[in-house]
């Protein structure tokens, strides 16, 4: 599989709870984790995904086409939701891929990992850029969020469909943003008739 370049869609995954301290979470059965890894590797390869990162209990994958990334995420959740496999959270973000020495770096990668981190197990969240270019996919608007360690907000959407987990929320609090285009607390913001008034 050739590594995608230019504008790519990143899919980051993580087994829910895998980042907790060992004294809070005794860990997931090793056999189930291996089964999880085998399923996802085969599935990503079938959907033309290029695995760029593996760490802990998750993957980072780059796709040349957003539609392939969406299909891979959807199919993965449907498979992982059966049996005793642990719930997995997923985040999709489309952006420019910065490459160095065969690795992906830069804002798109950082934003994709932080986007994934606000999802619940079994949930697929996506950026506005992915929603705009994904073909034949249906998304629910979850609102605007301030992602950890990032200067700007992210408009977040949830991939919805038959048998996919319907959460209607994320693990993070929605950002406060102004009624009109402008800035709030020094951050770039998005307009909404339902948003709060700008602080003075």
| Oligomer description | single chain
| Rg over CA atoms | 17 Å
Fraction of residues in β-strands: 25-35%
* End-to-end C-alpha gap: 53 Å
Structural shape: globular
Question: Quick one: how many beta strands?
Answer: 11
**Strand arrangement, major sheet:** 2-3-1-4-7-9-8
Uncertain residue segments: 20-26, 177-200
The overall pLDDT average reads: 81
| Order of SSEs | EHEEHEEEHEHEEEE
> Count the helices. How many?
4
Largest sheet: 7 strands, mixed
Give a description of the structure.
The chain has helices at residues 30-46, 66-80, 107-117, 128-133, and strands at residues 7-15, 49-55, 58-63, 88-96, 98-100, 103-105, 124-127, 138-145, 154-160, 183-184, 187-188. It has 4 helices and 11 strands; from the N terminus they run E-H-E-E-H-E-E-E-H-E-H-E-E-E-E. A 7-stranded mixed β-sheet has the order 2-3-1-4-7-9-8, sandwiched between helices. It is α+β, with helices and mostly antiparallel strands. It is globular and about 40 Å long.
């Amino acid at each position: 599989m050739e590594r995608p370049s230019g504008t790519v869609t990143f899919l980051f995954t993580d087994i829910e709870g895998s980042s907790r301290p060992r004294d809070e979470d005794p860990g997931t059965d090793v056999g189930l984790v291996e089964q999880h890894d085998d399923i996802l590797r085969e599935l990503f390869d079938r959907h033309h995904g290029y695995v760029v990162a593996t760490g802990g209990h998750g993957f980072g994958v780059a796709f040349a086409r957003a539609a392939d990334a969406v299909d891979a995420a959807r199919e993965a959740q449907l498979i992982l939701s059966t049996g005793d496999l642990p719930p997995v959270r997923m985040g999709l973000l489309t952006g420019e891929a910065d490459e160095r020495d065969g690795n992906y770096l830069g804002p798109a990668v950082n934003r994709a990992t932080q986007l994934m981190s606000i999802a619940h197990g079994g949930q697929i969240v996506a950026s506005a850029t992915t929603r705009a270019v994904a073909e034949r996919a249906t998304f629910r608007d979850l609102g605007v969020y301030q992602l950890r360690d990032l200067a700007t907000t992210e408009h977040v959407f949830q991939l919805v469909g038959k048998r996919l987990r319907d959460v209607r929320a994320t693990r993070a609090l929605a950002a406060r943003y102004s009624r009109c285009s402008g800035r709030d607390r020094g951050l770039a913001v998005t307009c909404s008739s339902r948003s709060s008034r700008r602080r003075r």
